[in-house]
Write a structure and sequence with these properties.
about 475 residues, Growth Hormone, Chain: A, mainly alpha, 3 domains, disordered C terminus, 16 helices
Length: about 475
């Protein structure tokens, strides 16, 4: 199959059906895109489960957190470079190369004799994962019209939830067998299948150009900024953390400034502007990631100390958050008209209110209500996420459609990095380094969670401002 599925000229206000994802030649693309995203998603959940076994085998416990941090840095680099790779090689070859780099990184993670080699493999794998997930978003923009796009985006959310459900268990099996390398070898056949499917299915759109220079300076600057943000949690002194966050902000800002004047852009025009629809959409992605990151990083600590929750139950609470997110995405994917226009702001306002309720439950409630509010927070965020992603793809400037869609994962990953850094700074400023007493953790929980509740409220205002411009979709392109 070498041709793009035929566009469906449905009105934006006409409700699409789930079967539309498998009609008019879209079935193979739906499977391919979700496979690519699942390869990236499941690795995130597997690595945290097998890391104790890894350090027991090859050592390097002082670099324990670096396996996840370097993977995230690699993901941001890969996602940022995806538009350049696509423009240079064409749609099909760009997607194939993303899969091949992911395969190389997967094998590199399966064979290392020491921690340093594993960290190199994690970085390479992150680059491949970033390339795949960013180009998958661009292909969603290419292959699915706006009326159907919310449905495919909802399936992507479901894929993440499935990865959250089975990833830790799969990693746990290999950890129990004391063969952690099998967790990576087991992924390799699926990556190979992905590369094969991409070579057969994806049309080679665009005119490949060898004239574009590789944007290594901007990518290096962006990676340094993310690394600086990631290092904040290595320091318990608020002043040191604040300095690193400031450095990270400066490096990322300089990256976007240099990108403005480049002939081969990594990001669309006015990507950080609060005066353009695309800029507002990007800020919503960033703040959504900040919200769920601050919750998922510190909520387990608060629950373990204040409610004596076991690690197994903590994993369950993360899962119900993911399930709420998926449910919100599925429900919102069927919204049209006024529901579609205003649902994004309503979703984040709902997330803000339920985060406040979640805070009270953490401090003085029961695990039952913690579970309920955690699920409802995910519900609100999931609804906003699918609607604003569709919105951002629809308001992309002429000629910047692929860059806009492809760089969305970069913005989300930046939100994760800065969300973790900001939450760490707030926690340390509230006295986290004073110990693990219930009194100390209660104070830290109040500061971190109240800070978190403000973020979705700000996001709701941004979403409301964005939709005031109207949902101007460009169909049939």
């Amino acid at each position: 199959m070498n041709s793009q599925p035929s566009p469906e000229n449905k009105s934006t206000h006409e409700k699409a059906k789930w079967l539309d994802l498998f009609s008019d030649g879209r079935a193979a693309y739906t499977i391919l895109l979700n496979l690519g995203i699942s390869l990236h998603a499941i690795d995130i959940f597997i690595i945290t489960t097998i890391m104790p076994t890894v350090v027991e085998d090859i050592g390097g416990i002082s670099y324990y957190a670096w396996t996840s941090m370097l993977y995230m840095v690699g993901t941001i680099v890969g996602a940022s470079a995806s538009s350049h790779l696509r423009a240079r090689l064409g749609t099909r070859r760009g997607y194939i190369w993303g899969g091949l780099i992911l395969l190389i990184g997967t094998i590199a993670c399966a064979i290392p004799p020491d921690m340093v080699t594993l960290l190199i493999g994690r970085f390479i794998k992150g680059i491949g994962g970033g390339l795949v997930i960013a180009q998958s978003m661009a292909l969603i923009r290419d292959f699915y019209t706006p009326s159907i796009r919310t449905r495919i985006l909802a399936t992507v959310s479901t894929t993440w939830s499935v990865a959250a459900l089975f990833g830790p268990g799969l990693g746990g099996v290999f950890a129990e067998l004391e063969w952690w390398r099998g967790a990576f070898w087991g992924q390799a056949p699926f990556v190979i299948a992905f590369v094969f499917m991409a070579s057969k299915l994806v049309p080679n759109q665009g005119n490949p150009s060898s004239q574009q220079r590789f944007p290594w300076r901007r990518l290096l600057m962006l990676a340094a900024g993310v690394l600086a943000a990631g290092l904040t949690n290595q320091y318990k002194m608020p002043i040191a953390s604040a300095g690193l966050i400031l450095l990270a902000v400066c490096l990322v800002w300089l990256t976007f400034q240099r990108d403005k004047t480049s002939d081969s852009k990594l990001f669309p025009s006015n990507a950080l502007s609060l005066l353009t629809p695309v800029g507002l959409a990007y800020w919503s992605y960033f703040l959504i990631s900040v919200t769920h990151t601050t919750l998922l990083i510190f909520a387990p600590l608060f629950l373990q100390v204040l409610h004596n929750i076991t690690p197994l139950l903590l994993g369950y609470l993360s899962l119900v958050f993911s399930m709420g997110w998926t449910t919100g995405s599925i429900v919102a994917s069927g919204w049209t008209g006024k529901w579609e226009r205003h649902g994004s702001a309503a979703g984040m306002l709902f997330a803000s209110v339920t985060t406040i309720a979640f805070t009270f439950s953490i401090l003085s409630g029961t695990i039952f209500w913690v579970t309920i509010w955690s699920t409802l927070i995910g519900l609100g965020i999931g609804a906003t996420n699918v609607l604003m992603t569709n919105y951002g793809m629809g308001v992309a400037r002429e000629g910047e459609e692929a860059i806009t869609a492809g760089s969305m994962p970069t913005i989300r990953s930046l939100g994760v990095a800065f969300g973790a850094a900001a939450a760490g700074l707030v926690a340390n400023s509230a006295g986290l380094d004073e110990g693990m007493s219930k009194e100390t953790i209660s104070r830290v929980a109040a500061w971190v969670l109240w800070f978190t509740a403000i973020i979705p409220a700000i996001t709701a205002i941004i979403c409301l401002r964005a939709t005031s411009w109207g949902w101007k979709f460009r169909t049939g392109r």
